[in-house]
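Researcher: Sequence recovery benchmark, item below. Answer with residues only.
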């Protein structure tokens, strides 16, 4: 999935091979574990994390935003007494780093958003 996204933006294959063939170990209270080969993923906070967000997660969130059917509406009244309006924010997802949550008021809309995310995921393999 990650390799597909990187190839989509035409990242050089040599760079891909360099980036994804490395060993990792874990520090514990007693000692360092034996090294193991990393097969998938990157560490949180890596320099490449923002780039991966832009090329992989952002397109999905854009589609979900454009396809809103029955979003949750956050409302806040005006704090200025002379103004009679409220601020309404329509949302159908909350995302932070690698945690994402889909939000809907109806089962049908949730199923629709899940089908979008499934389709998005399947086309990446």
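Model:
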């Amino acid at each position: 999935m990650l390799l597909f996204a990187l190839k989509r933006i035409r990242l050089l294959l040599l760079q891909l091979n360099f980036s994804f063939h490395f060993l990792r170990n874990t520090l514990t209270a007693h000692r360092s574990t034996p090294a193991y080969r990393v097969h998938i993923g990157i560490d949180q906070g890596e320099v490449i994390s923002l780039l991966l967000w832009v090329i992989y997660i952002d397109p999905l969130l854009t589609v979900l935003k454009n396809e809103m059917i029955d979003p949750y509406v956050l409302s806040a009244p005006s704090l200025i007494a002379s103004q009679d309006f409220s601020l309404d924010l329509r949302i159908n997802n909350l995302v932070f780093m690698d945690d994402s949550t889909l939000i809907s008021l109806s089962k049908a809309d949730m199923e629709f958003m899940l089908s979008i995310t499934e389709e998005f995921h399947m086309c990446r393999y």
